[in-house]
Amino acid sequence: MSENTHDKLPIRMLHDRVLVRTDTPEGERRSGGGILIPATAAVGRRLAWAEVVAVGQNVRTVEIGDRVLFDPEDRAEVEVRGVAYVLMRERDLHAVAADRFQGATDSTGLYL
User: Fold this and answer.
1) What pairs with residue 67 in β-bridges?
2) Which of these, 6, 16, 55, 74, has the minimum number of CB atoms within 10 Å of its CB?
3) Could you confirm whether the keyword Chaperone appears in this record (predicted)?
4) Is residue 25 classed exposed, middle or buried when 0-12, 13-18 and 19+ CB atoms within 10 A define those classes?
């Protein structure tokens, strides 16, 4: 787990740090019904999904490739080779959605 290579990233995470790539860029988005919601629309505190691309050696609950839920307001952004990533501690993750867990056929696939 300590050796992290997502598209040969020239970076190795330390301690309990997790590097993720967000699913959607910030800005306009669409509702489930297809309505365009502008970036300036006021919404409540909204969590975001991202894919884990690197983990530190002390990370225990997530693996590279997992989809995680996090608060976009509590983040540190970093750019590596022109791609924006979010850096956070493992404890700042709220949930993990992964098919690798046994018995996920009758559940949502999330664990908290």
Assistant:
1) 51, 97
2) 74
3) yes
4) exposed
